[in-house]
């Protein structure tokens, strides 16, 4: 497989840095090709502005339509085009970050904001004048896989179904469902390391072993069973009343 590892942590000597290094060594040992986007090391600019699109800053910037035009005309800035080329190259994408304030670091959010432009990651349609919009399981990145690796300072129970911090699967729903699945990527269950600021050596060894196993099965593991938008489960964007009847919340968007 060809694997793109997107890494968003400012300290290479951190727990996350050690896991990233272990992961890249494992991919090499397994015979996979890999490329990396180490966002802090790259000095990635997370801010969308007119310069991304070679747009005249004196005129009104409409990000969606302007980004589509720039993508189609190949006038996106060089740093964005390079990241899109990496995504086109990859069979699988690892998104690796510490959980900060219930979400991803700003630099990673800005990577998605700038790279996942209209025409490339969203606003993709079937050919023809009546073609459907391809999203939630369809689109440019359909057929590729994605997996989140994250760390959290709290213990596992506090990020469980009744934990004070909220259920981790629900906290990750915006990126797993609303970003990765939306653009067509099949999303594998996340790998989370808990108590990251006080992890003893034995538990780090366990986390590294789990990471190696998750990478060994990257091509074969069963993805999260998110529902597809265009396959009859939804009517005008709303789940049919006979599916997950009587239930509400984020879990209804999975088939099991």
Automatic annotation (TrEMBL):
PANTHER family: NAD P H OXIDOREDUCTASE-RELATED, NAD(P)H DEHYDROGENASE [QUINONE] 1 ISOFORM 1. The keyword Lipoprotein does not apply. It comes from the Bacteria. Keywords: Oxidoreductase. This is NADPH-quinone reductase (Modulator of drug activity B). InterPro entries: Flavodoxin_fold, Flavoprotein-like_sf, NAD(P)H_dehydrogenase_qn. One of its GO terms (molecular function) is NAD(P)H dehydrogenase (quinone) activity. Belongs to the NAD(P)H dehydrogenase (quinone) family. The keyword Oxidoreductase applies. Coiled coil: none annotated. Residues 1-215 form the Flavodoxin-like fold domain. One of its GO terms (cellular component) is cytosol. Its EC number is 1.6.5.2.
């Amino acid at each position: 497989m060809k694997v793109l590892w997107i890494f968003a942590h400012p300290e290479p000597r951190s727990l996350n840095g050690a896991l990233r290094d272990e992961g890249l060594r494992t991919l090499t040992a397994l015979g996979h090709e890999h490329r990396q986007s180490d966002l802090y090391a790259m000095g990635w600019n997370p801010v969308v502005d007119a310069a991304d699109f070679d747009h005249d800053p004196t005129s009104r910037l409409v990000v969606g339509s302007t980004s589509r035009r720039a993508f189609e005309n190949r006038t996106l800035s060089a740093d964005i085009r390079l990241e899109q080329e990496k995504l086109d190259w990859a069979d699988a994408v690892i998104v690796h970050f510490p959980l900060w304030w219930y979400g991803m670091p700003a630099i990673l959010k800005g990577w998605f904001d700038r790279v996942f432009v209209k025409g490339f990651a969203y606003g993709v349609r079937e050919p023809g004048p009546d073609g459907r919009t391809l999203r939630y399981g369809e689109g440019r990145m359909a057929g590729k896989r994605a997996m989140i690796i994250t760390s959290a300072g709290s213990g596992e129970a506090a990020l469980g179904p009744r934990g004070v911090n909220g259920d981790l699967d629900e906290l990750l729903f915006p990126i797993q469902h609303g970003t990765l699945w939306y653009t067509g990527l099949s999303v594998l269950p996340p790998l989370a390391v808990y108590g990251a600021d006080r992890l003893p050596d034995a538990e780090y060894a366990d986390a590294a072993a789990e990471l190696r196993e998750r990478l060994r099965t990257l091509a074969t593991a069963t993805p999260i069973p998110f529902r597809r938008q265009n396959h009859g489960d939804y009517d005008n964007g709303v789940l049919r009343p006979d599916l997950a009847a009587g239930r509400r919340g984020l879990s209804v968007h999975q088939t099991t």
